[in-house]
TrEMBL record:
It holds the Pfam family OpuAC. SUPFAM superfamilies: Periplasmic binding protein-like II. The lineage of its organism: Bacteria, Bacillati, Bacillota, Bacilli, Lactobacillales. InterPro entries: ABC_Gly_betaine_transp_sub-bd (IPR007210). Keywords: Cell membrane, Membrane, Signal, Transport. Residues 29-174, 194-293 form the ABC-type glycine betaine transport system substrate-binding domain. This is Glycine betaine/proline transport system substrate-binding protein.
Length: 296
């Protein structure tokens, strides 16, 4: 009787082992099928952009990405592809960055990048021209106090898809007075002193520029905002043609401009920490790192 019991246990154990092996094989096949559906292609944005160059670098340094291709498109084209895939719960890998309002619309994750193909996490900084602290100490104090989170910026950019940036920023400003008061607390109001802010034509930077403009205006300053390309922005600050900015990404995105002009301007430090770019997937995909992506 004991022998029969042992035999039955042995047979059951063998069956479970075979089932387990079969499950692993099936899972592996399913994983392969998922990436075959994607034709081993990463959906990118504009050729020549910094994130596109980082994506190409990433394809080169990860052995498991051998055979993968980067489909260069446009930011708008990438977002259409993401929307279609997400609505059908289909697999997709895109090049993305945060802050970006798509993280407010979709449940996404940026894949871990242990080899830093996209570089380390960045911070968005506040900078001024040399001498602003002496000329406008109260404005400089507000600029120096300015600090917010990724979610704040993303909320404005998302809202601005339906209304103007001015209205989206105003609504956020009105709803977040507790935070705004931390930037202005103890700073005397101005009597109309003029200050020139300089920004960049990116949606995230338009959000921060509008919020800072509202903050200074409501504290009595006469604010002008000019949007220019990054190279012009750094040069304008360095020669004193603009007073301040809340938009540069460091150390990577605008690092080259900082090396060229950094000695001639004042860096007040980060106003938004942890800006990140990388490969992005919907949360329903069962991968967490670039190293989880199988080779073709």
């Amino acid at each position: 009787m004991k022998r029969a019991t042992l035999k039955l246990v042995s047979i059951a154990s063998a069956s479970l082992l075979m089932a387990a092996c079969g499950s692993d094989d099936t899972a592996a096949e399913e994983d392969t099928t998922v990436f075959e559906e994607m034709d081993y292609t990463i959906t990118g944005i504009e050729p020549g952009s910094g994130i596109t160059e980082s994506a190409r670098n990433t394809l080169d340094i990860y052995d498991n990405l051998e055979g993968w291709e980067l489909q260069e498109s446009s930011t708008g084209g990438m977002m259409v592809e993401l929307q279609q895939a997400y609505e059908n719960e289909e697999p997709i890998i895109i090049t993305g960055w945060q802050p970006h309002y798509i993280f407010e619309i979709y449940d996404l994750k940026i894949l871990e990048d242990p080899k830093e193909g996209f570089g380390a996490a960045e911070n968005i900084h506040t900078m001024t021209r040399t001498g602003l602290a002496e000329d406008m100490p109260d404005a400089t104090a507000i600029l120096d106090n300015f600090a917010w989170e990724t979610e704040d910026m993303q909320q404005i950019v998302l809202a601005a898809q339906d209304v103007s940036f001015e209205e989206a920023a105003q609504n956020w400003y009105d709803e977040n007075q507790d935070l705004v008061s931390e930037w202005t607390n103890g700073v005397p109001k101005s009597d109309g002193q003029e200050i020139d802010l300089i920004s960049m034509p990116w949606d995230t930077e338009r959000a921060s520029a509008h919020v800072m403009s509202l903050t200074l205006e409501n504290h009595g300053f006469d604010v002008n905002v000019t949007s220019v390309d990054p190279s012009v922005l750094f040069q304008a600050l360095a020669v004193g043609e603009a007073d301040a900015t809340v938009t540069p990404w460091l150390p990577t995105t605008h690092g080259a401009f900082m090396e060229e002009y950094g000695d001639d301007l004042v860096d007040l430090g980060p106003n938004l920490p942890g800006a990140v770019s990388g490969l992005v997937v919907p949360a329903y995909m069962d991968i967490d790192s670039i190293e989880d992506i199988p080779a073709k």
